[in-house]
Amino acid sequence: MRSDNVSAVQPATLYVVATPIGNMGDITLRAVEVLGAVDVIAAEDTRVTKALLSKLSIQSRVISYREHNEVTSSDGIIKLLSQGNSVALVSDAGTPGVCDPGAILVSKSRVAGYRVEPIPGASALVAAVSVSGLNDKGFVFKGFLPSRPGDRKQFLHSLKTYDVPVILFESPHRIKESLSEMVSSFGESLRVFIGRELTKVNEETVSLTMREALTWVESGIYQSRGEFVLVLFLPIKSDDVEQMPENAKQLLRDLLEALPLKQAVDIVTKYTAGSRKKIYQSALDIKNGSNN
User: 45, 147 in Cβ contact below 8 A?
Assistant: First the structure.
């Protein structure tokens, strides 16, 4: 029930509506009100959304807004807005635009001058953060890991530059392979929080080392059920990252006498096993006279 006399929806407005990620009890009163009042609901999967609306006894018009037709269907929705219609955007679960279709439509709607209003609610990202034990230093959200092994390996390597925890999504059929590659990239002792089937009957949340996490999924039962949220507790601390060998430092000093900083760092990174981040910091220290 609304606490004011304002209409549930306004004309020519796009509402970005969060829906439950598992537990139907997480639907908000405001989301129910908006979904029942808009002229059109744009859904990632009309079958999933119609099932949700049926449980809520809502009979609003539903149209498709899937990833593969996001560009073209967004034009049709802009036309609906231009005719004064109110439109609710929903994904299959959670908040649209967060690893789900929606960003293109939101951007086009804003450029066209239409109001875009969030109807917040369930989010796997926020749910995981709230129970993972993150400190107040913040985090980086990188979405789903790449599906191709080569791209995934390069992607994981790039995460080593972050000095705050990194949050990822992964599908059940790739979780074992991805965790195995993370062990190779980050080592067995890195702490990782895993959330599986969040808000659902079989919800599990665990905090493990990377090796323990791999053993956990190798039992087999986790590889076909539910999506995973992973929180990698970076930065990685290890002796080879913390300290540069003296010969590498000397090479860096010599190169800095003749080359720009970036070029010197590139060369030392290429021909030593050191972390580029650490080498770059050492180069700055040398330039500032604080590294002997």
Answer: no
pTM score: 0.75
Locus of tokens 């789900």: 100
CATH number of 13-122, picked from 3.40.1010.10, 3.40.50.300, 3.20.20.100, 3.40.630.30: 3.40.1010.10
Q: For residue 45, give the DSSP letter.
A: S
* Element spanning 204, H or E: strand 204-209
When the pLDDT of each residue in the chain is averaged and rounded to a whole number, the result is 88
Whether the link from the prior residue into 235 is cis, omega within 30° of 0, is: yes
Return the ∠ at Cα 122 (arms to 118 and 128), rounded to 5°.
125
- Token digits of residue 139: 């985090």
pLDDT-derived band at 2 (thresholds 50, 70, 90) equals very low
Instruction: Give the start-to-end residue ranges of the domains of the chain.
Output: 13-122, 125-232, 239-287
On whether the CB atoms of residues 125 and 132 are closer than 8 A, the answer is no
What is d(CA 36, CA 68) in angstroms, rounded to the nearest whole number? 27
pLDDT at 284: 85
- Say if residues 268 and 252 touch (Cβ distance below 8 Å): yes
- Residue whose structure tokens are 């990782």: 192
Q: Which residues contact 46 (CB under 8 A, 6 or more apart)?
A: 62, 63, 64
CATH match of 125-232 with 3.30.950.10:
yes
- 91: which residues sit within 8 A by CB, 6+ positions away? 19, 43, 44, 100, 101, 102
How far is Cα 226 from Cα 265, in angstroms, rounded to an integer? 43
Look up residue 224 and give its two tokens: 């076909």
